[in-house]
């Protein structure tokens, strides 16, 4: 069996087993060695890590970065600890202690453990972060997907452990023309006996002063060079619909089912674009307070929670064409999940760090879009008090505004 030699900065050597023909980049990957931290040599000559292992040669991997790679590799190796029969989920959490040590906590969950963990995390987020208090009313954005459905079930099952609250379920009527509201939503709200309303699309088209129904506009925009903005328009319009409904009910709190990956992808977007949004789990946007009770739970954990409670969601409509189109957004989601593998628990540090950063730059003044009335956090290049939000500017550019 051939091997290659890993040499660290103290010139200590370690042998790694490899196969003939194996590409070096794959070896580095499985051994948790970043390619930019090392130089690879064959018989003393530098080679690219895209080359493969040949018979009869000697290979070395020399660490050029000055960090303790062994301790870090050991953390990743311990993530590979064997699962037991009946283990359904391996929860990893990597924290940095006050004295700078990396501490990995592994929890091996059976079905009941997973259910308890999700429920306790949900309750803890609401109480520790003071998302809800006795007597609160809030608008609950119910789309019928995994996130909002599992959150509604959590609210219902755990009501004895939560403050006394009143839920106003609301679904924006953006389903396909002629299609009825998804059956799952109807069944859920009936079972749980919560107040629920559909927000008619015509009301929202009126708020945006559009010449056509917004869903028609979104499909038309998909055929233009601005197609990659359509998903952002869809999100903004849905947010506006919820705010409009909340205002009608005289409510200022809106509950959204964003989970860790949604929120991390958003924070990556903030760093890439400089477009600032305040951190979860509470986001104050003008007169509205958005709360995210799923801020410390992943989509996978929510999906498992539904599965282990035998709740099946039947897909009620095809995915909208714009969900997949802006590939940069897809990439942020992919990265957000990968980052969680390399640093499970990084969201906790990212939320806190962003929160401190926001306090430093002290953004508190909101302005209102003069077309749709949306409260917006002014960003570097936009808005001087009499301007429109990005979405309305785009609708205007394509001649959709009256
Ligand atoms: Zn606007």
Helices and strands in order:
Blueprint: E1 3-7, E2 13-17, H1 24-30, E3 38-42, E4 45-47, E5 59-63, H2 69-78, E6 89-96, E7 102-109, H3 111-128, E8 137-141, H4 146-157, E9 166-172, H5 183-192, E10 195-199, H6 201-207, H7 214-221, H8 230-248, E11 253-255, H9 260-273, E12 282-285, E13 288-291, H10 299-308, H11 327-342, H12 346-361, E14 367-368, E15 375-376, H13 390-397
Parallel strand pairs: 1-5, 8-9, 8-11, 9-10, 11-13
Antiparallel strand pairs: 1-2, 3-4, 3-5, 6-7, 12-13, 14-15
Helix pairs in contact: 3-10, 4-10, 9-11, 9-12
The chain binds zinc ion.
* Rg (C-alpha, Å): 25 Å
The helix-and-strand class reads alpha/beta
Label the overall shape.
Answer: globular
Topology, number of strands: 15
Q: Mean pLDDT across all residues, rounded?
A: 89
Can you tell me the number of structural domains?
2
Biggest sheet features: 6 strands, mixed
Strand order of the largest sheet: 10-9-8-11-13-12
Briefly note the CATH topology name of the largest domain: Rossmann fold
């Amino acid at each position: 069996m051939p091997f290659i030699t890993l040499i660290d900065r103290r010139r200590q050597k370690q042998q790694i087993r490899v196969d003939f023909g194996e590409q070096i980049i794959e070896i580095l990957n499985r051994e948790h060695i970043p390619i930019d931290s090392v130089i690879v040599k064959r018989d003393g000559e530098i080679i690219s890590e895209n080359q493969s292992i040949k018979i009869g040669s000697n290979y070395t991997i020399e660490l050029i970065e000055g960090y303790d790679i062994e301790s870090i590799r050991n953390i990743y190796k311990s993530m590979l600890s064997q699962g037991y029969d009946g283990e359904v989920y391996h929860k990893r959490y990597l924290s940095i202690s006050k004295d700078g040590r990396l501490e990995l906590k592994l929890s091996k969950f059976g079905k009941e453990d997973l259910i308890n963990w999700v429920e306790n995390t949900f309750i803890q987020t609401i109480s520790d972060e003071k998302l809800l208090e006795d007597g609160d009313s809030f608008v609950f954005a119910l789309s019928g997907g995994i996130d909002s459905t599992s959150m509604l079930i959590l609210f219902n099952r755990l009501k004895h452990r939560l403050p006394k609250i009143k839920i106003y379920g609301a679904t924006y009527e953006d389903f396909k023309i002629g299609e009825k509201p998804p059956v799952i939503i109807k069944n859920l709200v009936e079972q749980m006996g919560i107040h629920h309303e559909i927000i008619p699309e015509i009301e929202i088209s009126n708020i945006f002063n559009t010449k056509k129904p917004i869903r028609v506009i979104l499909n038309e925009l998909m055929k233009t060079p601005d197609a990659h903005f359509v998903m952002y328009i869809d999100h903004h319009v849905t947010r506006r619909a919820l705010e409009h409904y909340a205002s009608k009910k005289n409510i200022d709190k809106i509950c959204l089912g964003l989970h860790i990956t949604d929120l991390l992808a958003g924070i990556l977007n903030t760093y890439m674009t400089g477009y600032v949004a305040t951190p979860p789990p509470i986001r104050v946007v003008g007169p509205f307070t958005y709360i995210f009770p799923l801020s410390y739970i992943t989509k996978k954990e929510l999906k498992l929670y539904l599965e282990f409670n035998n709740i099946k969601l039947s897909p009620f409509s095809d995915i909208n064409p714009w969900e997949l189109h802006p590939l940069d957004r897809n990439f942020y989601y992919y990265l957000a999940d990968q980052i969680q593998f390399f640093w499970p628990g990084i969201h906790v540090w990212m939320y806190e760090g962003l929160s401190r950063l926001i306090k430093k730059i002290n953004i508190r003044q909101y302005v209102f879009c003069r077309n749709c009335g949306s409260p917006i956090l002014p960003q570097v290049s936009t808005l001087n008090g009499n301007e429109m939000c990005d979405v309305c500017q785009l609708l205007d550019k394509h001649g959709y505004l009256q």
